[in-house]
Amino acid sequence: MEKRLRLAPSPTGLLHIGTARTALFNWLYARKTNGKFLIRIEDTDIERSKSEYTTNILNGLDWLGLNWDEEPIKQSKRVSIHKNYIKRLLETGAAYRCFATESEIHDLREKQKVSGLPPKHDNRHRNLTSKEIKKFISQGKSSVIRFKIDEETVIKWEDQIRGEIKWQGKDLGGDLVLSRRALGDEIGDPLYNLAVVVDDNFMNITHVVRGEDHISNTAKQILLYKALDFKLPIFSHTPLILNNEGKKLSKRDSVTSIDEFKEMGYLPEALTNYMAFLGWSIKSPESEILSLTEISKVFNLSDVNKAGAKFNWEKLNWINSQYIKKMELTKLTKFIKNYWNEMGWESPSTEWDLKLTSLIQDSMILLKDAIDQSKPFFILSQMKKEGDEFLKNKKEAKESLKFILIYLKEGNISKVNKDNAREIINKITVSHSIKKGILMKSLRVAFFGCLSGPDLIQSWELFSENKIDIPLIERCFI
Ligand code: GLU
User: How much is the pLDDT for 124?
Assistant: First the structure.
């Protein structure tokens, strides 16, 4: 039978790393089994749901390469269907109207708090007679619909990640509210647990893979599946993503939305590669750099860990740098040129662009690193303290730079490239008995304002083509 999985995000915020990782595990399993990966937008919370969040979530999934099958379903379009199922539960006696007011429920909670008890509804209206119901309605009281949960019942399922999970009916907080408050004999807007069961059944979902924070919902939902005579899907609850302190990763941990990762210069391939290993692992991997297709071939829900997965920035950065290293030069150049355009930096030629990209490619961790690393090739870099001291303290430093200037001017050399740069350096060191090391360091200081940077000879060629090598050397004498 075809396996059908889904992501059911609520569009109440930007696509979050936790939701993206859940999407990834669903996608991987669907692709591994040649099944379907579907999307249902759970937009029934009218106040908090926004269409721009739906767009953001879909765009984010698309950017990550998590393509979906079939048109996404909008839960809000199915409200009347959900209500019909609630009616059915009312008719069979599995659900009932509860007229307890907000303040009555508040009082109950307060009492429970004082006695140190967890919040739990006392099912006070479970056995109202039809006469009592009529009376409440005629008094203009509003009601919610509650689904009866037998205290004695034990709910058990075989979770693909966690093995057998058992839940006691008495620990589910009392009879479950299926719909919001409504007046008279109306049924208010259906709530999450009811809607999710009806929709998963409608979409023929065979595997529900979602965060471990939904485990108690699953217990409630299994009771609804049974009451509605629906076929149960197979459940899997993924571990949470944790921060350094071992707490659930949240907005306070600087970045959590996929947009922010994109903005910071992470590549989608690197992020999905990293996210797959957030909670999942393969025995003796040959490499940790794996494409989505490669991972989908070996992925199994039973290999997902139960324990929370710590978010490790260093590992993500390392993976990102590996993807940048192996990226095709023209593709990387395109990314980098976007940054140059944003900065208003103009380059002398397309060939120069490729050469500069190749020069910095191996030292980039994030795409955004290209800004700092290419800046000295466009703008005369500031002399740093280290460079300044070198020029002051090393006697031959300025001297050697002066010899370079003279050599370039007298020889009428307007273009330095990889080939003649070495020759220039050799000739000056020999004829003026200057140590090669000093000359090279002085040149580096002139170009970068400090003693570090990329390959000097290749850099010189690029500075020269952009006509800033001479001004950079000259500034050392001001
Ligand atoms: N809308 C729910 C959420 O975003 C869906 C949970 C589920 O997968 O059932 O948490």
Answer: 97
CATH number given to 4-68+241-313 = 3.40.50.620
pLDDT 10s digits, 259-318: 999 999 999 999 999 999 999 988 777 889 999 999 999 999 999 999 999 999 999 999
In this prediction, residue 18 carries a pLDDT of: 94
* φ, ψ dihedrals at 206, nearest 5°: -100, -25
Asked whether the beta carbons of 368 and 343 are under 8 A apart, the reply is no
pLDDT at 249: 86
In the chain, what are the domain boundaries? 4-68+241-313, 76-194, 327-369, 385-477
- Pocket test residue of 14, 198, 214, 222 for ligand 1, highest count of atoms within 8 A of CB: 214
Q: How far is residue 8's CA from residue 174's CA, in Å, rounded to a whole number?
A: 26
Which residues lie with the beta carbon below 6 Å from any ligand 1 atom? 8-10, 42, 196, 210, 214
Q: Where are the beta strands (DSSP E) in 312-416?
A: none
Residue minimizing CA distance to atom 10 of ligand 1 = 9
- Residue 102 CB partners (closer than 8 Å, separation 6+): none
The CATH code for residues 76-194 is 3.90.800.10
- For residue 125, the Cα-to-chain-centroid distance in whole angstroms is 45
Alpha carbon distance 294, 99 (integer Å): 55
20-24 mean pLDDT? 97
Euclidean distance between CA atoms 89 and 284, whole angstroms? 51
Question: Mean of the per-residue pLDDT values for the chain?
Answer: 96
The CA distance from 27 to 292, in Å, is 9
Nearest to 67 by CA among 33, 32, 28, 12: 28
What per-residue confidence (pLDDT) applies to 256?
79
Tell me, in angstroms, the distance from the centre of ligand 1 to residue 214's CA: 8
Model confidence at 70: pLDDT above 80: yes
pLDDT of residue 469 exceeding 90, the answer is yes
| Residue from 178, 186, 175 nearest 125 by CA | 175
Q: Identify the band that residue 250 occupies on the pLDDT scale cut at 50, 70 and 90.
A: confident
**CATH class (in words) of the domain with range 385-477:** mainly alpha
Ligand 1 atom at minimal distance to the Cα of residue 6: 8
Q: Whose CA is nearest to atom 7 of ligand 1?
A: 8
